[in-house]
Design goal:
- The longest helix has 13 residues, at 137-149.
- A 4-stranded mixed beta sheet has the order 2-1-3-4, covered by helices on one side.
- Helix 6 (91-102) packs across helix 7.
- The chain has 2 domains: 5-64, NADH-quinone oxidoreductase subunit E (Arc Repressor Mutant, subunit A, Orthogonal Bundle); 76-149, 3-Layer(aba) Sandwich (Glutaredoxin), CATH 3.40.30.10.
- 32% of the residues are buried.
- The protein has 7 helices and 4 strands, in the order H-H-H-H-E-H-H-E-E-E-H.
- Strand 3 and strand 4 form a beta hairpin.
- The chain is 45% helix and 11% strand.
- The protein has helices at residues 5-16, 25-36, 41-51, 55-64, 84-87, 91-102, 137-149, and strands at 76-81, 108-113, 125-127, 130-132.
- With 165 residues, it is of the alpha+beta class.
Length: 165
């Protein structure tokens, strides 16, 4: 689905802030992702049209940044670091605990990421780009469950402040 009428107006306002239309690409990708939970092929087409770019250029940018999801995800995206500091502090165990716990939960997507730049908190994870660490598997599950229940307010799928609902 392309932008809603309200988001299309917002997209035009975003574009107007920049001296060059294509400079609005990242904010428009975030807007599309916040609307649908991922960057849809229709959104890529619409953004390309709004910015006078080819869909291939929009897709190239979208695929470069791991924060943009090109497939549907859960309402909560749990990113687990598996770089050196996290691995030596049981980061793979944390990843496997979370993958096992949420494998059948459509609201939670667990992903392995190379580095979250929080080595002092290893092992570390993010829930919709909110840092948590150091955490054990049990602590991580409790944190994710708190977001899932609403007792913690999650950012949007793109990390914008506010509820992801």
């Amino acid at each position: 689905m392309a932008y809603t009428p309200a988001n299309l107006d917002q997209a035009r306002e975003i574009i107007a802030r920049y001296p060059f239309r294509r400079s609005a690409l990242l904010p428009l990708l975030h807007l599309a992702q916040d609307q649908e939970g991922w960057v849809t092929p229709d959104a890529i087409e619409e953004i390309a049209g709004l910015l006078d770019m080819t869909p291939a250029l929009v897709l190239g940018t979208c695929s470069f940044y791991t924060m943009f999801k090109r497939e549907p995800t859960g309402r909560l995206v749990v990113s687990v670091c598996t770089n050196v500091a996290c691995i030596v502090n049981r980061g793979l165990d944390l990843l496997h605990d979370l993958e096992g716990r949420y494998a059948d939960d459509p609201d939670v997507t667990v992903e392995e990421v190379e580095c979250l730049a929080a080595c002092d908190q290893a092992p570390v994870m993010q829930v919709n780009y909110e840092f948590h660490g150091p955490v054990t598997g049990d602590e991580a599950v409790a944190i994710v469950d708190a977001y899932a229940s609403g007792s913690r307010v999650a950012r949007t799928i793109s990390g914008s402040p506010g509820s992801s609902e």
